[in-house]
Amino acid sequence: MTNGGSLRRRNMFEEYTNGNLPNLKEMVAKNYSEIDPASEPEVKGVGILTSGGDAPGMNATIRAVVRAGTKAGFKMMGVTRGYHGLWKGEVKELGHRDVSETLQRGGTFLMTARSKSFETPAGVLQGAKMCKVFGIDCLVVVGGDGSFKGARDLARIGIPVIGIPGTIDNDVACTQYTIGYDTAMNTAMEAIDKLRDTASSHERCSVIEVMGRHAGYIALNVGIATGAEIILLPEVPWDMKDVIKTILDCRNKGKRHYIVIVAEGAGDATEIAKQIEEATEIESRPTILGHLQRGGSPSLRDRTMASLMGVRAIECIKDKRLNRLVVYRNGEITDVDIEEGLSMKKSISMDELERSKLLT
Ligand code: F6P
């Protein structure tokens, strides 16, 4: 750390907040390259917020960050209601005991929000100002890609950040695992096992819509785990004629029930069920699992991932490796630069989808 570095950062901040709001992109282009990573200011206070859709394991993440952070000597602060709360200055100190009995609880006790305010330069500046006001020298953001973009914008104007991936969708490109994914899939799997019982008794087709936004990771894995006849993903074009043919083939082979898993980004379960019934005369029922996939006590995998990723976030701060995303890759918890992480692309396994077709 050098005084010159922290002074330059302070000056940048003053420049951004002198009331005359600049074009953030231009300012970033002008200044980001000047930031010397070796000259990060000393971190004393660390804030944590959860942002975007909640995910089982977020509480376990907060607990890990707060406990590892206090043990490392940082003043730990919780920000409620995500970026929205930061914007309004909803910040309170969190100690070791404040996170007791949270490991096994679903949801996020800090609460969360989808904050539009943070998509504007003025919103980012207000967030940065609040970090300065409350002595948050580094902000830990638990969320998905959208939340990380907000964190990156803060980093670009000199507020150090660390991101931890927390979303049931598993759609963050730079990591093979996001906190909440395992619990959500197990919740969906248990619900689908129950739907199979009733579909089988009535010789019906059950069309089940699972979450995932624009990604099919939940649908693919849940489909394999429940022995679905058909899995429809947003990443793979599909045709209703093929769906109907597969169901009729299954009936000809003596099947008594049919399970169709549709990712929410791939189609509408109600419409698909209607078309299947019309074309095959097999009674079909749609079920939209919806937000029940987001709740519940986190699974063992989510508790351990959340705990270890939380500790990794504090290790990054201790080692002055700031503006990083904690990720899981090739069996290891590690971290990547936030700009690099956000520029990555992820693709679903076509092989796994093809293999799933051999199992029904
Ligand atoms: O990102 C998590 C997620 O549950 C998606 O799977 C889903 O599309 C979305 O959030 C729903 O968002 P909301 O809770 O704001 O309706």
* Uncertain stretches of 5 or more adjacent residues: 1-13, 16-22, 28-38
Main beta sheet: strand number and arrangement? 7 strands, mixed
DSSP strand count: 11
**Count of structural domains:** 2
Q: What would you say the CATH architecture of the largest domain is?
A: 3-Layer(aba) Sandwich
Helix count? 13
Tertiary shape: elongated
Helix percent band: 40-55%
State mean pLDDT (0 to 100 scale).
Answer: 91
Radius of gyration: 23 Å
Per the CATH scheme, the topology name of the largest domain is: Rossmann fold
**What is the CATH domain class of the largest domain?**
Alpha Beta
Bound molecules: 6-O-phosphono-beta-D-fructofuranose
The secondary-structure element order is HHEHEHEHEHEHEHEHEHEHEEHH
Strand order of the largest sheet: 3-2-1-4-5-10-11
Distance separating the two termini: 60 Å
What fraction of residues sit in β-strands?
15-25%
Query: Structural class, from secondary structure content?
Result: alpha/beta
